[in-house]
Amino acid sequence: MKFFIDTANLTEIKEAYDLGVLDGVTTNPSLMAKEGIRGDENVRNHYKAICDIVDDKVSAEVIATDFEGIVKEGKELAKIDDKIVVKVPMIKDGIKAIKYFSSEGIRTNCTLVFSAGQAILAAKAGASYLSPFIGRLDDIAFDGLDLIGQIVHIYQNYGFETEVLAASIRHTMHLIKCAELGADVVTCPLKVITGLLNHPLTDKGLAQFLADHAKANS
Ligand code: G3P
């Protein structure tokens, strides 16, 4: 199972990378805006700065929504660094662009996926990664985790190579359930990754070990 961090914040990316468990980064236009990154050159420089921190797989999302625009923008993003994965929205022209990128050897992440039908289309088009949004489905009273299970099952049926990248993960149980369901990748905020560390019995046990050691050595 791969861990991606879902942020454009360089400090958080560095902290997750230094933990030694990070396999990649996902961003989106909202996350870039949150960091105050605006203007084509600044956006490119910021993606390069992210690529310089991690080993591989940095999803950079296109803004264009027409085939020609997505292809042009995606090619420019891919030129920034070999680590870039072009993130393309699940729309008709997006599917056509994913097919094109696939034939050109450019990796893609199909985003804003909310149904099994969309997942099948993206895999048929040759997407490298598929991003179903769990939390946003939960927000409107659909079960996001059910969708992850359904897509993993369908992809296994046909041996699709597209990796299921569970996104919009809000808490540690989302991540753990995704692991049970067989998602290939999870992308989540830093607090979800570090949240996996926590257990009160670990804290209590460590305090006891240290106290016993101190007593024996006093
Ligand atoms: O990057 C896509 C996705 O992970 C967004 O998550 O929390 O804004 O629904 P969220």
Bound molecules: SN-glycerol-3-phosphate
- Which CATH class is shown? Alpha Beta
Q: Which percent band covers the strand fraction?
A: 15-25%
H/E element sequence: EHEHHEHEHEHEHHEHEHH
Q: What's the helix count? A: 11
Work out the helicity level. 55-70%
How many E-type strands? Answer: 8
Rg, Å, rounded = 19 Å
Class derived from helix and strand content: alpha/beta
CATH superfamily: Aldolase class I
Q: How many individual domains?
A: 1
CATH architecture assignment = Alpha-Beta Barrel
**Mean pLDDT figure:** 98
What is the straight-line distance between the termini? 45 Å
Gross geometry = globular
Brief digest:
With 218 residues, the protein is of the alpha/beta class. The protein has a single domain, classed as TIM Barrel, CATH 3.20.20. It is built from eleven helices and eight strands.
Defining key terms:
218 residues, alpha/beta, eight-stranded parallel barrel, 17% strand, binds SN-glycerol-3-phosphate
Explain what the structure shows.
- This protein is of the alpha/beta class and about 220 residues long.
- It has one domain: Alpha-Beta Barrel (TIM Barrel), CATH 3.20.20.70.
- It is about 55% helix and about 15% strand.
- The protein contains eleven helices and eight strands.
- Strands 1-2-3-4-5-6-7-8 form an eight-stranded parallel beta barrel, surrounded by seven helices.
- Helix 6 packs parallel to helix 8 and helix 8 packs parallel to helix 9.
- It is globular.
- The mean pLDDT is about 100.
- It is an enzyme of class 2 (transferase).
- It holds the Pfam family TAL_FSA.
- It comes from Cyclobacterium xiamenense.
- InterPro entries: Aldolase_TIM, TAL/FSA, Transaldolase_3B, Transaldolase_3B/F6P_aldolase, Transaldolase_AS, TSA/FSA_arc/bac.
